[in-house]
Amino acid sequence: MMARLKVRNYRGREVPAVLGFALLSGGIGAALSVAILDRVGTAGLVAGGAASLVFAAGLADDLLPGGPRGLREHLAALVHGRVSTGAVKLLVMVASSVVTVAAGPQRDAPTRMAGVVLIAAAANLWNGLDVRPGRAIKFGLLALPAVAAMSWPAAPFVPGVWLASLLVLPWDAGERAMLGDSGANLLGFSLGLACYYSLSGRQLLVAAGLAAALNVAADTVTLSRVIDVVPPLRWWDRLGRKP
């Protein structure tokens, strides 16, 4: 299986897309630690199961590359009756977001709908960020305030996934390995969930709108072009990358 997880990066170098396993391990370790120190309720168990499904769907897409690329192509393939691993992954991300929000604390309907959009959009967005060394992880590091502010028993795997991404950053930025769809989707799902649990209703509406807009940008003008035209984003994106 490991031999099938090698992909070519943007320089054309072949690298293993295996760092997602480290993120999954970090999430499992954090969940066990939180369970020992505190009680993990139904919401936390459901969130952990949903995150595992998102990882598995991304892994399937890593193992079976090819087919449609991008949100529009996947949806167009579904309309014509063709089901790709990418389309299955998108459906799993949406379903996992719905189930996770439904199992979580009661919030008003608009806030919960915004939460579903944000979590699913973040999972897909981070997959789109994983096209340059270290990019997905570095932009994930900016979500530290949300990870720190959330109630960890509600989603005990999230801090472990975030910390594991920090630990594997040197391998990603050094072009020795990549997150792959499994790791990028898991990271995005985790960060979206952290934002759902730490933001107010109005903040969630803004965050969900932004995440949705960035998904549209990724599918049209590409995220690389968006990042390149915004100086602070361009600086952060290139920080630590090989010339």
Description:
- Helix 1 packs antiparallel against helix 8, helix 2 runs antiparallel to helix 9 and helix 5 runs antiparallel to helix 9.
- A hairpin with a 5-residue loop joins strand 1 and strand 2.
- Strands 1-2 form a two-stranded antiparallel ribbon.
- It has 243 residues and is mostly helical.
- It has one domain.
Notable features of this structure?
243 residues, two-stranded antiparallel sheet, 12 helices, 2 strands
In short:
With 243 residues, the chain is mostly helical. Helices cover 71% and strands 2% of the residues. A two-stranded antiparallel ribbon has the order 1-2.
Number of domains: 1
Rg, rounded, reads 17 Å
Strand element count? 2
Report the structural category: mainly alpha
Please state how the strands of the largest beta sheet are arranged side by side: 1-2
* General form: globular
Return the average pLDDT rounded to an integer: 89
Residue fraction in strands: under 5%
**Low-confidence runs:** none
Percent helix, as a range, is over 70%
Q: Whole-Å distance between the termini?
A: 31 Å
What's the main sheet like? 2 strands, antiparallel
The helix/strand series, from N terminus to C terminus, equals: EEHHHHHHHHHHHH
